[in-house]
Amino acid sequence: MPLTVGQLSEFALLERILPRLHSPVGRPSSVLLGPGDDAAIVAAADARVLISIDTQVQDMDFRLHWPNGYSTTGFDVGWKAAAQNLSDINAMGGRATSLVVSLTLPGNTTVEWVEDLADGLTAAIHELRASTCAVVGGDLGRGTEISVTAAVTGSLDGRTPVLRSGAQPGDVVILAGTVGRAAAGLALLESVHEYSSLEEKLRGFIRAQCRPRPPLESGPAAAAAGATAMMDVSDGLVRDAGRIAAASSVRIDLDPEALRYLGEPLRGAASLLGMDPLEWVLGGGEDHGLLATVNPNVMPLAGFTTVGSVEAGHAEVTVGSQSPANVGWDHFAD
């Protein structure tokens, strides 16, 4: 029988987790004191600290076992916990400096699953090139379901933060990373099409859902180039563009041709499931791409694609000047 967390003390479980949180390239210089004391110490040379937090809850944000036969690994959950937090710092034009993680675990959770989660956290930080970040501490608790909360700190390195409220009429709307792929992956996970039977491209969409890859170099680059507004696309292109529109009191008009181009790679999954790929592009979240607005003179900007324009007018999002039917994900309405 697999060893479970209920068979270990908190200290014994931490002894298994903490060694897995060491960065393969050593501790970042911003981390002055890591795990082991009541609190970590992280340098804040900028005199300002970016901070954000996200939670994943079993059967709300992920299933341990999906209808298509895929089993969520601890690695998946650890990776996503890191990625979605790193993406928030990226969207401000900053770089991440530390993560703290709180785990609530049922007693029957296997120790291997938790060790895998720690490996996923470390791997995401390393592979997404968040080299100045490390897991510096956290908390362990017992509960009826798995819940993973991660909080991240970051630095602006002397730059002005890029907010949602700076978009100006005449700017272009640009996107780094992907949209729609994580939504396609979620639809496949919820489908009757067995994971083991899916071709590699379709499995790639499931990876986009379980292990998103935010473009972490794009935030600071866009900030340095003069981006007027930015945000992480976590709840869908329309909903998140709408947040920029509302904060900036502008209309954002998305380009139908650009959207069709973004939807082309999704056609195979859409055909299999009887879906319209444009629905995933407009409303699908959790790819954690980066949406920004810039003066057109800044373009082309490496890693970004133009997907629309900023217009004067009522704060809303349109597609080819028409109101879209799909408005994206709402955590309480959906």
Describe the secondary-structure layout.
Blueprint: H1 10-17, E1 31-33, E2 41-42, E3 50-57, H2 74-90, E4 95-105, H3 111-127, E5 135-142, E6 147-155, E7 172-176, H4 181-189, H5 200-210, H6 218-225, E8 229-233, H7 237-248, E9 251-254, H8 256-263, H9 267-273, H10 277-283, E10 289-294, E11 304-311, E12 316-319
Summarize the structure.
This protein is α+β, with helices and mostly antiparallel strands. It has helices spanning 10-17, 74-90, 111-127, 181-189, 200-210, 218-225, 237-248, 256-263, 267-273, 277-283; strands at 31-33, 41-42, 50-57, 95-105, 135-142, 147-155, 172-176, 229-233, 251-254, 289-294, 304-311, 316-319. It has ten helices and twelve strands.
Describe the structure.
The structure is a single chain. The chain is built from ten helices and twelve strands. By secondary structure, it is α+β, with helices and mostly antiparallel strands. Strand 4 (95-105), helix 3 (111-127) and strand 5 form a beta-alpha-beta unit. The strands form three sheets. Strands 8-10-7-11-9-12 form a six-stranded mixed β-sheet, with helices on both faces. 31% of the residues lie in helices and 22% in strands. Mean pLDDT is 94; it is low at 329-333. The chain has helices spanning 10-17, 74-90, 111-127, 181-189, 200-210, 218-225, 237-248, 256-263, 267-273, 277-283; strands at 31-33, 41-42, 50-57, 95-105, 135-142, 147-155, 172-176, 229-233, 251-254, 289-294, 304-311, 316-319.
